[in-house]
Amino acid sequence: MNKQIILLPGDGIGKEIMESAKYVLNTVASEFGHRFTFHSHAIGGDAIDQYGTPLPDDTINACEQADAILLGAVGGKKWEALPGNIRPEQGLLGIRKKLGLFANLRPIQGFAPLLHASPLKEEVVNGSDILIIRELTGGLYFGKPSERIKDGKAVVDTLYYERSEMERIVEKAFESARLRRKHLTSVDKANVLESSRLWREVVNEKSKEYPDVTVEHMLVDAAAMKLITAPTQFDVIVTENLFGDILSDEASVLTGSLGMLPSASIRSDGVGLYEPVHGSAPDIAGKGIANPLGMILSAALMLRHSLQMEEEADEIEEAVRACLEQGYHTADLSVKNGKQVGTKEMTEAVVENITTKSVSDSICSTYA
Ligand code: IPM
Ligand code: MG
């Protein structure tokens, strides 16, 4: 199968970790007989430097033609003083909106060798396996007006949602819960916000179509607390854009490192953009020490959700798990009695686990 993949390395460590994802994908391609064609395009601060805009038309056009998109990270101190509409983050928000990638999936799953580094006690966090589904193209992030008013003496941001935008994300959440432990927690602020009251109505209405899924409504402040006191009680969480942004960063450290987390931003036809949850980490950019695993695991999500390559995705995830069990870790991770390595060695270790696994699989099938 020949697939066109657009690479948007972006800023900071984005370029280094994108090389890792490419190497791993090429390895998977040769093991499984696929062909991936990669094209790189600019986004974020990198695009501002080259073209004066965080999201050039050329990047949008390329993404519109792609089978799937991989993104590294955007942002950095260098561009912080720029006005709001030409900041690197606008590139990311713009591409999500342009492509209609309304569903953001952030799976939070522990890796046993990392759990001791969780800020929570191991017995609290052990066994947590959460999928956060965040609405990604509506709410406060995109509502207009969003500006200073009254000569700068006041300010307004707008929380706007269409009912249909709520329906499609809630449906996605029910479908996902059905494939997991069938428990859905809908997070809102219905004691204060009208938008949350409509959200609840939509969830209750949709739940009639999914009698096999248990639904629980939780206020966002309570959810933030519950995530750190009883994380194992969650299965799938669904929530609006801003709440999802905040809760997913909180949840990401439960399992020991933000550096491990992948994310998928998809729409109904399966087209998607895949990126690690961590940022561009400009302080360590170019030093060869960035953790490539969140990016590599994002590539696995891409294979699963956009390219229907479930077995290939499993193989990457197993290889990452194997590396950590063998003790390999980057500077941001802590593995007891482990071996600290840089970006390239970590990537090599993943590739090695993929290739040795397929060699041993073929030996097994030869002798079966
Ligand atoms: C994320 C990030 C972005 C967001 C920023 C970089 C605009 O924090 O993907 O969670 O808020 O959506
Ligand atoms: Mg965020």
Topology:
Elements: E1 2-10, H1 14-32, E2 35-40, H2 44-51, H3 57-65, E3 68-73, H4 88-98, E4 103-109, H5 122-125, E5 129-135, E6 143-149, E7 154-158, H6 163-178, E8 183-188, H7 194-207, E9 214-219, H8 220-229, E10 236-239, H9 241-252, E11 262-266, E12 272-276, H10 293-305, H11 310-325, E13 328-329, E14 339-340, H12 343-367
Residues 75, 89, 92-93, 245 line the site of 3-isopropylmalic acid (IPM).
Write a brief caption for the model.
With 368 residues, the chain is of the alpha/beta class. 43% of the residues lie in helices and 21% in strands.
Report on this model:
- There is one protein chain.
- By secondary structure, the protein is α/β, with parallel strands linked by helices.
- The chain is built from twelve helices and 14 strands.
- It has a ten-stranded mixed beta sheet with strand order 2-1-3-12-11-4-5-10-8-9, sandwiched between helices. A two-stranded antiparallel ribbon has the order 6-7. The protein has a two-stranded parallel ribbon with strand order 13-14.
- Helix 7 links the parallel strand 8 and strand 9.
- Helix 1 packs parallel to helix 12.
- The chain is globular.
- Bound molecules: 3-isopropylmalic acid and magnesium ion.
- The site of magnesium ion (MG) has 2 residues, from helix 9.
Jot down its keywords.
single chain; 368 residues; alpha/beta; 10-stranded mixed β-sheet; two-stranded antiparallel ribbon; 12 helices; 43% helix; globular; binds 3-isopropylmalic acid; binds magnesium ion
